[in-house]
Design a protein that fits this description.
53% helix, seven-stranded parallel β-sheet, Rossmann fold
Length: 318
């Protein structure tokens, strides 16, 4: 255990990769290591990058990594991809787009595939980001594809959330419906050299006017052309502006506490689900279900009794 901690804290990439593989595979041994690493977390700036496929997030990340390395910052990347139905691996090839950073000892890039379980992926991605935090990376970038519920769940770990869109994709209204508008701290119009960039910016501004913000921060809109490295410096400046805003108002720690509360709740729910599945696999439960089918017992009664078994409680309302 001590060797694992020392090697990960020293940014030994092979051991970091092996631990993340354990996390992906649900290895029970991962828990002890993660518990030992936890005291070393909380120092990295976690930045979420999300948006529809084709928005150019990977090339944008490549440019952002290059900019951060120019500032001597160490960078970790968790790229959450859809999964190939043939190989079971991530299919977007983020590491191919970021090959110029592959040999940099202060950059770690890992793609994680859903393998058909987005809920499990959400948990695994958060734990992987925490490993990179404990390893001492200054900035951890978390990229997700799409704007569905699983992506929103993953974004719940981020200190700053950026939504990437591109002109002509016709996706801004769908993004609004998905609820990501409220979660985004800034908007990035990538491929801004394409026709329609100005119109897209106007549409985002209009939608922002409709969204009720619970705070005074109005997400800025940054235009970038990542393939030409244009706008990256301004993007980083706006991210820093958001961080200062959170810190000055005490929201930096407040946001992290909310995220930790949500994570603890997720873990409790997962533990209860596993315990409940174990109980419900017993033959007695099937017998009770038969009694429900024969109208000898009511569903609520059976549910209450079996939940009491799991919780170890009797009496009172559940």
């Amino acid at each position: 255990m001590d060797d694992w901690l020392r090697l990960i804290r020293n940014k030994e990439k092979r051991h970091i990769a092996r631990l993340i593989s354990r996390i992906e595979n649900g290895d029970p041994q991962k828990t002890k290591i993660l518990e030992q690493l936890y005291p070393f977390t909380g120092n990295a700036w976690l930045i979420g990058i999300t948006g529809p496929p084709g928005a150019g997030k990977s090339s944008l990340l490549d440019g952002l990594i290059h900019h951060l390395r120019g500032q001597k910052k160490t960078v970790g990347v968790i790229a959450v991809d859809p999964t190939s139905p043939f190989t079971g691996g991530a299919i977007l090839g983020d590491r191919v787009r970021m090959t110029r950073h592959a040999l940099d000892k202060d950059v770690f890039i890992r793609s994680m595939g859903s393998r058909g379980s987005l809920g499990g992926l959400s948990r695994a991605a958060k734990e992987a980001a925490r490993v990179l935090d404990a390893a001492g990376y200054d900035v951890v970038l978390i990229e997700t594809v799409g704007v569905g519920q699983a992506e929103l769940d993953i974004m719940n770990i981020a200190d700053t959330v950026a939504l990437v869109l591109n002109p002509g994709a016709g996706d801004v209204v769908q993004v609004f419906k998905a609820g990501i508008m409220e979660a985004a701290d800034l908007f990035i119009i990538n491929k801004a050299d394409l026709p329609g960039a100005a119109r897209l910016q106007a549409e985002i501004e209009e939608l922002l006017d409709l969204v009720k913000q619970s705070h005074s921060w109005r997400p800025p809109i940054v235009q970038t052309v990542s393939t030409k490295n244009e706008g990256i410096e301004n993007l980083w400046a706006q991210m820093n502006k958001h961080r200062r805003y959170l810190e000055e108002r005490g929201e930096w720690s407040g946001r992290r506490k909310r995220h930790l509360k949500e994570e603890v709740q997720e873990v409790i729910e997962d533990m209860l689900r596993r315990r409940l599945e174990l109980e419900l696999s017993k033959p007695e439960f099937q017998m009770e279900l038969q009694q429900v089918a024969e109208r000898k017992k009511v569903p609520q009664q059976v549910a209450r009794e079996w939940l009491e078994r799991v919780l170890g409680k009797t009496g009172g309302e559940i």
